[in-house]
Specification:
- This is 4-hydroxy-tetrahydrodipicolinate synthase.
- GO terms for molecular function: 4-hydroxy-tetrahydrodipicolinate synthase activity.
- Belongs to the DapA family.
- Keywords: Lyase, Schiff base.
- It is built from twelve helices and eight strands.
- The protein has helices at about 25-40, 60-70, 85-100, 115-130, 140-145, 150-155, 170-180, 195-200, 215-225, 230-250, 255-265, 280-305; strands spanning about 10-15, 45, 80, 105-110, 135-140, 160-165, 185-190, 205.
- Strand 2 (about 45), helix 2 and strand 3 (about 80) form a beta-alpha-beta unit.
- The chain has a single domain (about 10-230), classed as Alpha-Beta Barrel (TIM Barrel), CATH 3.20.20.
- An eight-stranded parallel beta barrel has the order 1-2-3-4-5-6-7-8, surrounded by six helices.
- With about 300 residues, the chain is of the alpha/beta class.
- Helix 1 crosses helix 2 and helix 9 packs antiparallel against helix 10.
């Protein structure tokens, strides 16, 4: 089955900058979008969890997607997240994505309800019908409580719209299974510390929060492994990135760390909405140190040609 869309490259799940009163800072969001376009990422995701979708209303999420689409002006593909606890909310987001002119949707399992594979597939197909756009699935069982298993994949795979999956289970056996058994649903990296392994198994895209503030470094790994097949160079770049992965994933401060990284680039990303709280001084210092070192190391690797 030929997919209707090919997800390729680095897709950035865009942060949502906030003002002091937690309203959206639209000027800062425009800066983030321009920075990402100028620094070579291949697509943007509006309304992902890195954008704090769980702390936003459906109307807010659609307004953010509409703004991002307007600012992009077709320069990069736009994927709109549809993840929500309520199926009607996901359908509203999917329908809105189509009206906005999005290129694709991101579709996760509904959290907390823990549907069976059959129930989850029927839910996904209803969302697909509302959007009738290419779909990037998002398998993240640690957050949703639900694994997108074989029955789910077999059912949704009958629709040509399901043409990619961001795999975030952390189970390397899932990478093997998806690459072998579901080649028509293109494998995408959703576990940053396994990016090299995903690329070795033929994944053509990587959804990475860290690319919000280190886009060139993430693109460098993709280009080395996917475009050039130079895994020796890729291992060196990945080795330089690994300390960042540890800072991002340890301590439950992923989004706060990403937003501080954006602020380090001179774009005011602002605070995170409750219930989350910002980083302390030690957390900030650790990120700043790791970022300085990895940027220097990767620049040296790239300078070697």
């Amino acid at each position: 089955m030929t997919p209707v869309f090919r997800f390729q490259g680095i897709y950035t799940p865009v942060v949502t900058p906030y003002a002091d009163d937690f309203s959206v800072d639209w000027d800062a969001l425009a800066e983030v979008i321009e920075y990402l376009v100028e620094n070579g990422v291949h697509g943007l995701i509006s309304g992902g969890s890195t954008g704090e979708n769980y702390a936003q209303t459906v109307d807010e999420r659609l307004e953010l997607a509409r703004f991002t689409h307007h600012r992009l002006k077709g320069r990069l593909p736009l994927v709109v997240g549809t993840g929500a606890m309520l199926t009607p909310d996901s359908i509203a987001l999917a329908h809105g994505a189509r009206q906005i002119g999005a290129d694709a949707i991101l579709l996760a399992s509904p959290p907390y309800s823990v549907p069976t594979d059959r129930e989850n597939a029927l839910n996904a197909l209803a969302i697909d019908k509302a959007a009738d756009l290419p779909v990037m699935l998002y398998n993240y069982p640690h957050r949703t409580g639900t694994m997108m298993g074989a029955e789910f994949l077999d059912r949704v795979g009958r629709s040509r719209n399901f043409c990619g999956i961001k795999e975030s289970s952390g189970d390397i056996n899932r990478v093997h299974m998806l690459a072998r058994d579901y080649p028509h649903i293109k494998l995408g990296c959703g576990m940053d510390d396994q990016a090299l392994e995903f690329f070795a198994w033929g994944a053509p895209f990587w959804v990475c929060g860290g690319s919000n503030f280190l886009p060139r470094e993430h693109v460098a790994l993709y280009e080395a492994c996917v475009l050039k097949g130079d895994f020796a160079k890729g291992r060196r770049i990945m080795s330089a990135l690994m300390p960042l992965m540890r800072v991002l994933e340890q301590g439950g401060k992923f989004i706060q760390t990403i937003k501080h990284g954006v602020s380090m680039n001179g774009i005011p990303a602002g605070a995170v909405r409750p219930p989350l709280k910002g980083l302390n001084k030690d957390d900030k210092r650790a990120l700043e140190q790791v970022t300085r070192v990895l940027k220097r190391k990767i620049a040296d690797i790239m300078a070697e040609g």
